[in-house]
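Gluconate 2-dehydrogenase subunit 3 family protein
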Amino acid sequence: MSEHKNGQSRRDFLLKTITLAPAMAVGSTAIGSLAFSPAAMAADRPDNGPQQAREYQPSWFTAEEYAFITAAVARLIPADDRGPGALETGVPEYIDRQMNTPYATGSNWYMQGPFAPDTPKELGYQLPLVPRQIYRLGLAEADEYSKKQYQKVFADLNADQQIAALKAFETGQAQFTQLPSKLFFSYLLQNTREGFFSDPIHGGNQGMAGWTLIGFPGARADFMDWVERGEHYPFPPVSIRGERA
């Protein structure tokens, strides 16, 4: 989790670097990449975490796992004076719902061996784990790390401890036994980004707050008349279901 000087907030960094957001904003379950630093966004959040936008009971994660997800995404994309963050916009719900898709079970992945974990990442994914397994194993290992370091599970840590733990996962400093901590963190971060900018039909981006933040029009049928005007697009985003922000 990179540090940002001169009072630059996580939201500032997100706005300046989210160059790929429009390409994925309508919603995709593929592991892509948005160009902003991983857990970089982490020092300016108050410790009294926000309440999620609506009650949601996870269908795949256990209560303990879901508590971790809820706490982690609130640190990765926090609420601030520009709008709600990942927690308030339903990102935990988005991630839970993704666990019941072909993406999470790897049914559309090639998963036959041999596996060569030391192969350069440019040559493709090289582990025998699908996203469901990455989350289940990673969440257990992450809580175990938190208990060893701080005598509490991740969800019960204070803000500084949660940020320090996320940094350890991101850099690989946290030694997991069943998978690399960096791999677990990369999925958590990527799915948090996806949930914040996906169409609300998938559970996240509630109120289209992510789209409003970056000025993305959403699933409007036609906005090409505005593309080359050099003007701020004046209309609110529209979801696939026709809801307006």
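thats it. Residues 217 and 235 are 7 Å apart (CA to CA). The radius of gyration is 18 Å. bye
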